[in-house]
Amino acid sequence: MLKTFTLGGVHPPENKLSAKEIIKELDIPENVTVPLAMHLGVPAKPVVEKGYPVKTGQLIAKGDGFVSANIHSPVSGKVLKIDKALDVSGYKKDAIFINTEGDEWIETIDRSAEIIKDFNLSPEEIVNKINDAGIVGLGGATFPSHVKLSVPRGKKAEYLLINGVECEPYLTSDHAVMLERSEELMVGISILKKALKVNKAFIGIEVNKPDAIEKLSNIAQEFKGISVQPLEVKYPQGGEKQLIKAVLSREVPSGGLPIDVGVVVFNVGTSLAVYEAIQKNKPLFERVVTVTGKSLQKPSNFKVRIGTPLIKLIEAAGGLPEDTGKIINGGPMMGKALSSAEVPVIKGSSGILILKREESARKEVGPCIRCTMCVKVCPMGLEPYLLMTMSEKALYESLEKEKIMDCIECGSCSYICPANRPMLDYIRLGKNQVGKIIRERKK
Amino acid sequence: MNKQIIISPSPHVHSGQSVEKLMYGVIIALLPALLVSIFFYGKGAIAVTLISVASCIIFEFLIQKYILKTQVRIHDGSAIVTGMLLAFNLPSNLPWWIIVIGALVSIGIAKMTFGGIGNNPFNPALVGRVFLLVSFPAHMTTNFPYPQGISTPYISHIDGFSGATPLGIIKEGFKNGKSITELIGDVPSYTDMFIGKLNGSLGEIAGAALLLGLIYMLIRRIITWHIPVSVVGSFFLFISVLWIFSIDGHNIIMAKTSLNIPYISYTNNEGALVPFHMADPVFHMVSGGLFLGAFFMATDYVTSPMVPKAMIIFGVGIGIITGLIRIFGAYPEGISFAILIMNGFVPLMNRYIKPKRFGQTN
Questions:
Q1: Is residue B209 part of a domain?
Q2: CB of B197 closer than 8 Å to CB of B40
Q3: Pairing status of strand A77-86 against strand A53-54
Q4: Does residue B11 lie within any of the structural domains?
Q5: Is residue B97 part of a domain?
Q6: What residues of chain A lie within 8 A of the CB of B9, using their CB?
Q7: Does A432 touch chain B (CB under 8 A)?
């Protein structure tokens, strides 16, 4: 029997349209917009000003405090301005605008194609270098990687888990990385293992990617303490807690972190970025992005510079179709619908999904018939129907008791509901309020 | 830029599951039993079902449109399910106006007064059925038609061609001091009862066909196994344990294994000590409304619990109360009352019985 997580889960159609597409490098855009808040935590502080010349890979904003991340220029050229810009969050936030001139990289970056396997940095040096390179979780959560690697006192990491699940329908960027950058990925994982001082790493991959499982399993034999764990296909297996449960049968306690059960989880894209930072001195300024959708002419996987307007990617994939109803940053289950295709690619952008108008509209909401499907599919063992009603009625104390803060917002409840009830919408509102109350109490 | 772009929170896709699909799934699962009923009871089964379904739809439409003045939702199929289930709980010779009253109570009182689909605490079809049982006892207890074949016309009250159900015959017989060996000749064979060749409510007779419907609903994942299995399982266990300690169980076990299990005796109204009589567990499984109740009535979404653990408690409660009523109660059959009683506990169970949470620490 294949391993998977035990509670809940759904099987949305996979629609991996771009699964067979090799990664293509996208032309460098004339202008890039680099938001200062592309990571979880405090926005970075700019270290350049209007008119400054910059090179590709040069530090342009410095992480502000521990939970923050450095930002490097994705292009060479001149800083046009530092101003507010609309980003994927839907808000206008501070960003550095750069006018591209040529593509001159900083000298320290090794641009050769050679794969360097040996490394002899100490764990502390690795963490510092990762911090310098501005690496954050590329799976979408964008949590600064050096924070995850700094295991708090009293806790011990036993296992490193590499997330190659990519359970979101449509998205294939991680799949492409696993196939095309396998060896570098393995070196990256070895580096992360050393930084965490663990002996064992597992790469979790769902069986809908048999080529990736085969390739990585073969290469893993050359690397000590890395093995591939094939997993049954089930959403949301890419959720950190679900992945740990699936691979190691350990349950992160309610309100806890993976490190509480001795595990640290990194995405495959992040592991590749770690390889590049440590072995090639290359900071994080480009990433692989899937551009996909049933109406799109050429669903693709692109390697693009951070700050590139999404519309450039869409144009390279055949242009925005006439009947577009939604442009989504991310996948269909957890991605964010955008108001504009002009917003830039950020570190956490794993995909852009174009939905047709007929796929975009929500259906008419009916009364709850208590069919229990939302309870059955909830991977956290919650009762979404109840959380929705309590959120509607603003019963925040009860919501906290019913563990609303455990919700990972995977959307399985709204996805399955036969009455089309927008459960997650209301749960988010409730979570927001309960979160506020908890923070107030702590003060 | 396209002005018609839609912005809404995730998820952006839906499974395509709908209330209609679920309800029509239940209707499909009910069809085998309806066909068996038509085969044995003829036009009566068709007529009673049509009258019941039509009245349920009409009452729901009228109440939504003219009294509540809300959106008309008869297309969701729930009124059809209620209508079919009510008909399944009625004899196929019931006069049309009694059926209409049953439908009015089911839809008007049990469902719509609470706000319609999703809000009613008690199973609408059962409320209708029990209302008719206590209001028209002559029609609803001793007047079940005998299975006479597909060409039987729909005529109410065919004296001589109708009588009590096997459960009723046994209950009445025990009351008059008869033993099971004297009574067993008055009821059909167990095989006949399992395929539906007996007198009873039109939908409850066909045990085999109802089982087929259950399998269909399980495969389509319309319901889970928890409620049907716990109702039937706990009922069977409970009846078996009682039976072992009855004189009838004692005699059979003694004859087959020479195990001398003591049996229960009690003092009757005349002051005489009499042994406790009981039909065997298999008889209880194939007669009465156990399968219809366990598979289709207790599993009603709205009036059953939300969490597997609670579903099992709910099912066991129904199984045991049904057994208690059948053996010790005034009525020969008790599953309708058992389900309604347990329906009453559902809000309490939903409140205190919680699913297994991820990462629960204790």
A1: yes
A2: yes
A3: antiparallel
A4: no
A5: yes
A6: 336-337, 422, 424-425, 428
A7: no
Token digits for B195? 């395929």
> What φ, ψ does residue A56 adopt, rounded to 5°?
-65, 125
What is residue A215's predicted lDDT score, i.e. its pLDDT?
A: 96
Query: Does A254 touch chain B if contact means CB atoms closer than 8 Å?
Result: yes
A&B contacts, CB < 8 Å: 161
Q: Does residue B198 contact residue B287 with C-beta atoms inside 8 Å?
A: yes
ipTM of the complex: 0.90
Query: Which positions 86-125 of A are in contact with B (Cβ < 8 Å)?
Result: 90
Assign residue B196 the CATH number of its domain: 1.10.3430
- Give this prediction's pTM: 0.92
Strand order in the sheet with A200-206: A226-231, A200-206, A159-163, A263-267
- Domains of chain A are 29-100 (2.40.50), 123-280 (3.40.50.11540), 286-360 (3.10.20.600), 373-442 (no CATH)
Q: Residue B361: list chain A partners with CB under 8 A.
A: 253-254
Give whole-number Cα distances, A304 to A24, A55, A107, A250, B66, in Å: 9, 16, 21, 37, 61
Please give the pLDDT value at position B274.
83
Average pLDDT of every residue of chain A? 94
Least confident of A7-21, A102-116, A339-353, B251-265: B251-265
Q: What is the mean pLDDT of residues B32-57?
A: 95
Give the neighbor-by-neighbor strand order of the sheet with A59-62: A45-46, A59-62, A71-72
CA dihedral A221, A226, A232, A237 (to 10 degrees): -150
pLDDT over 80 (residue B293): yes
**Residue B255 located in a structural domain:** yes
List pLDDT tens digits, range A82-124: 999 999 988 999 999 999 999 999 999 999 989 999 999 999 9
How many Cα atoms within 13 Å fall on the side-chain side of residue B108? Answer: 14
